[in-house]
Predict the 3D structure of the following.
Amino acid sequence: MASEGDQHKLHRKGVTVYSSVAENQRNTGHLCGSINSTSPDVTWVTCDDTARYITLYRDNNNGYTPMDFCEVQVFVCNAGTFGHDCSQFCHCEDGTCNYVTGECTGGCKSNWTGRTCSECSKSTYGFWCANNCNQRNCLGNSSCDHVTGKCDQGCDRGYQGEDCATDAYINWESTHNLQNSKLEYLLSSTVRSYHVNKA
């Protein structure tokens, strides 16, 4: 006679996992994978499609249909994320992207491009593609790196930074004023010290 552990393993044999958009499906829909008596106690099955229902099905060919499962967990990426661990982002215009491939079927939101709408469009760069390539102050004609916005030949006079978007005069003026403040403080401290020592 089979032990209790062996019985549980037999109850796993021939179980198939399906995903579908309609409820009450049996062995129809998208086949995600199968579980058998040699499957580990904790088994991962990935359903690489968009679905609303998950069905665990066991064929009744031999009249023996019990299934033993302690727990079934279904993990789904949040809207706007995709991939095996849901760590990649998509920026779809209409609806969410495919949770596995990241593909957007309804086009991309403004400033985004690519199959998964996760690349900056030609005219944007930076975090969340929020910076406009045309607002940089590059020397001559320059391509626009879609991550950094770097200017190929440097910056126009009066601008600095990798993307030439920072006004160099404002930075110089702030630094210059700070240095003057330190100088004034040092001078006033020296004068006070002088008066104290003399008295």
